[in-house]
Amino acid sequence: MWTLKKPDPVKLIIGILGCDADAVDVAVDMIKARFGPCDIESQAWPFRHTEYYANEMGKEIVKKFVTVEKLIAPDKLAAIKHTTNKMEAKLAAVLDNDLSRPVNLDPGYIEPSKLVLASTKNFSHRIYIGKKIWAEVTLIYSKGRWTSFEYTFPDHKEDRYYDFFSQVRDKLVQQLRE
Question: pTM of the prediction?
Answer without folding.
Answer: 0.96
